[in-house]
Amino acid sequence: MNRTGSGHAPGHDHGHTVAGWTGTGMALAGSVAAGGSMVAAWYPGLVLGAGLVALSACTTWVLHLAGWGKPGGPRPPAGRGWRVRDRSAAQGHPGCVGCRLAGRGRRTAAPAAGTPAVAPVAATAGAGALPGAGVYGERAAETEAAF
Q1: What is the DSSP letter of 91?
Q2: How far apart are CA 132 and CA 120, in angstroms?
Q3: 62 has a pLDDT exceeding 90
Q4: Residue 69 to residues 21, 103, 116, 141: CA-CA distances in angstroms?
Q5: Which of 27, 48, 120, 145 is deepest in the core (most CB within 10 A)?
Q6: DSSP 8-state secondary structure symbol assigned to residue 113
């Protein structure tokens, strides 16, 4: 099989990054600590191990936002090394939930002057009906348009 200069097959990207390796290592250590504590019936260790697993998710997210993660899809051959920093992370990656949670990525245009920012909810008929149940399709389209 032909290999590129980075040792990968052409068009192939494993996605190894500093954020990925750090988060995986921390989660593995937390899982081992929690599992060993469960076997030893040491409950503080179980909580500490579970806390390390949760901390690994936060650490991975912060490293991803700092540019040590990767956008979705294959990267160009020059950017496939695990120690290559992603300089486009400040703008947010398209379709990335982590970037959206941080307020990065696609932005929506501001509403035109004189128009309400939120559409009014249509009145529903009948007792016990869910508010806005008759406009679900319209609301789903508005929500999709916002992202």
Answers
A1: G
A2: 9
A3: yes
A4: 10, 17, 38, 31
A5: 27
A6: T
Residue identified by tokens 């540019």 is: 67
Give the residue-averaged pLDDT of 41-63: 95
Task: Determine the Cα–Cα distance for residues 78 and 8; give it in Å rounded to an integer.
Answer: 11
Q: Say what the alpha-carbon torsion angle 49, 52, 54, 60 is, to the nearest 10 degrees.
A: -150
How far apart (Å, rounded) are the C-alpha atoms in residues 143 and 9? 40
The dihedral through the CA atoms of 104, 139, 111, 125 has a sign that is negative
pLDDT tens digits, 71-97 = 777 777 777 777 788 887 888 888 888
Closest CA to 67 of 21, 134, 14, 17: 17
pTM: 0.60
Residue 118, CA distances (Å) to 81, 98, 138 in order: 45, 25, 13
The one-letter amino acid at 115: T
User: Per residue in 97-123, pLDDT tens?
Assistant: 888 888 886 555 555 555 555 544 444
CA angle 107, 112, 113 (to 5 degrees): 135
